[in-house]
Amino acid sequence: MKSTVTISSKRQITIPANMFRLLNLQQGQKLIVEVDEGRLIISPRPDSLTKELRGLTKGLFGKTASEIDDYLKKERDEWHNINQDN
């Protein structure tokens, strides 16, 4: 869905009513505005930043509990070895 809007002298835009309703937006609600590859993207801000970031590092340290434990052990060992050298 696309629509053309006009930027006012105060750099404001009006969200078309059909999009406002479709996204279930509310007056006073906070939105996130970002630029991505030359496009302006406006999204509803999540109620909880924690919920938004949940899963961000999923799989980064391993896929199973065992892989994660191995990764953490390796990191602790390296940290321990670095601190012993000082």
Commentary on this structure:
With 86 residues, the chain is α+β, with helices and mostly antiparallel strands. The chain has 2 domains: 1-51, Pemi-like Protein 1, Chain: D, CATH 2.10.260.10; 55-85, no CATH class. Helices cover 37% and strands 14% of the residues. It is built from 3 helices and 2 strands, in the order αββαα. It starts with 16 loop residues before the first helix and ends with a helix. The model has no long low-confidence stretch (mean pLDDT 90).
Itemize the secondary structure elements and their pairings:
Layout lengths: L16 H6 L8 E6 L2 E6 L4 H5 L11 H21 L1
Antiparallel strand pairs: 1-2
Looking at the overall shape, the CATH architecture of the largest domain is Ribbon
| SS-based class | alpha+beta
Q: Number of helix segments?
A: 3
Mean pLDDT: 90
The radius of gyration over CA amounts to 23 Å
Q: Indicate the CATH topology of the largest domain.
A: Pemi-like Protein 1, Chain: D
Strand-residue proportion: 5-15%
Percent of residues in helices: 25-40%
Overall body shape: elongated
What is the succession of H and E elements? HEEHH
Strand order of the largest sheet: 1-2
